[in-house]
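Plant intracellular ras group-related LRR 6, Theobroma cacao. C-alpha cells?
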Amino acid sequence: MMYEQQQQQQQQQVRMAMGLSDKGDHRRRCIEEERLEIVDLSGMSLDSLPNPSLNLATICKLDLSNNNLQSIPESLTARLLNVLVFDVHSNQLKFLPNSIGCLSKLKILNVSGNLLQTLPKTIENCRSLDELNANFNKLTMLPDTIGFELINLKKLSVNSNKLIFLPQSVTHLTSLRVLDARLNCLGSLPEDLENLINLEVLNVSQNFQYLENLPYSVGLLVSLVELDVSYNKITSLPDSIGCLKKLQKLCVEGNPMVSPPMEVFEQSLHAVKEYLSEKMNAGHKSPQKKKYSWVGKLVKCGTFNGHMMRGGTHGEREGFVMSEYRSIEGLASPRYMGMFSPRRLFSPRTYFSG
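C-alpha cells:
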C-alpha cells in the first residue's frame, strides 16, 4: 500500500513537471505551456516516461538524469524541436533513439554514465552541437563520419569507455577545444591532428598497455595548452612537441620514457621543449649517407669483366680497370651480348672457380 502511494505521488510530480494536471483551468494550462522552458525530471527513479500532452517544442532544456530509464521513446525526441540541452546521464540506457538526429538546435548532449555500446549515426545531424559528453559507457567505437558534420563541436568527452581507436574523421573537428579520451583501450591516435587548429586540451592518459606512440602531428597542434599522456607505454615523445609554443602543461608520468630522459622532465617543461627542439634540429643537420651505385658494386665483384689491379702507380690501393674500351654499339652486338646472359653471370665457374 505504501509503495502504491509513492508511485502515485511520483506520477503526480511527473505530470506536474510535464505540464499535466487532472484539475485546473484549460486556459491557465495553455499559458503555462507557452512559458515553459525547462523540464527537470532528474532523480525521480523513473523506469519509463509518460506520454505528455504538452507541446514539447516549447522545451529548451530537458533533464532526465539520475533515473532508471532503459530507453527513450523515438516519438519524444522527435518532438523536441527547440531543445538546446538534453541531459540523460546516469540512467540504464543501452542505446539512444535514432530520432535524436532531429535535434538540429541541440547544443549540449550529456549521455554519460549509461550502458551505451554505440552512438547512433544520426547524431551527425545535430550540427549545432557544442558539447558531447559520453563518459562512463561501454563504447567500443564512434561513428566513422562523426567529424565531418559536427563542425561546431568544441568539447568531446569519451573517457572511461572501451574505444580501441578514434575515427580519422575526428581530425575534421576544427572547432574542437577539448578532447578527453582517457581510460580507454586506444592503440594509436589519428594522423593529421594538425587540422585541429583550436584544440587546447588533449588527454589520452591511462590507456595503459595499449598506447605506445604519439603521431608526429601532435607537435603541430598550434593552440595546444595542455597535453596529458600519462600511464601509457610511450617510450619517446615526437621531436615536434618542441615546437608547441603555447604548451603550459605536459604530463608523462607512468610511461617507460627514454626520450627525453626522465631527468630532463624533472627540470622543467622548458627543458623538455628545448631538448626536443635540439634533437629535431640535429636530425635536420645530419649529413646524408653517400649513395653508391649498384653498378659499382657489380663492377667491384668482377661481374662486368673487369680485373683488380694492385700496386703500380697506385701503390697499394685497389681499383677497377676495364680490360679494353668498347662502344655501346659494340657491347650490343651479338658477339658481346652473351656476356650479360644470366647463364654467364650466375654460372658456377664465374663465382666458385678456384
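Confidence is low (pLDDT under 50) at residues 20-24, 289-354.
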